[in-house]
Design brief:
This protein has about 100 residues and is mainly α. The chain has one domain. It contains four helices and no strands. It has helices at about 25, 30-40, 65-75, 90-100. The N and C termini lie far apart (about 35 Å).
């Protein structure tokens, strides 16, 4: 909270609920929806994906990290191994941009 410039609650006081921002991920729609459908095999609408989210949280949909990397390589022709642990918005933008799909 301090890093975000917010004050800490007093002892015994409950902090206000906050949700992580997801504007960076949302800005990449409809590519994100396509990725969720084609790579993870589920609907993006069933998940909340924040700007800090990483693929590790969803790799179980593919079965494993290795399978997810292979699915992305098969679908988009991009090896995401070197940036797999980056925030999803970074991964999605790199995959999309490698494919010249910036207009989608």
């Amino acid at each position: 909270m301090r890093r975000a410039g917010e004050s800490l609650p007093a002892p015994g006081e409950r902090p206000r609920a906050r949700f992580a921002s997801n504007d960076s991920v949302e800005a990449l729609r409809p590519f994100v929806e396509e990725f969720w459908r084609d790579v993870l095999g589920t609907s993006y609408g069933r998940s909340y994906v924040s700007n800090e989210s990483t693929l590790e949280a969803w790799e179980h949909y593919a079965g494993s990290r290795e399978t997810l990397i292979v699915r992305v390589l098969d679908r988009y022709g991009v090896d995401i191994s070197s940036f797999y642990s980056e925030p999803l918005a970074v991964v999605f933008a790199r995959v999309r941009d490698v494919n010249g799909r910036g207009d989608r």
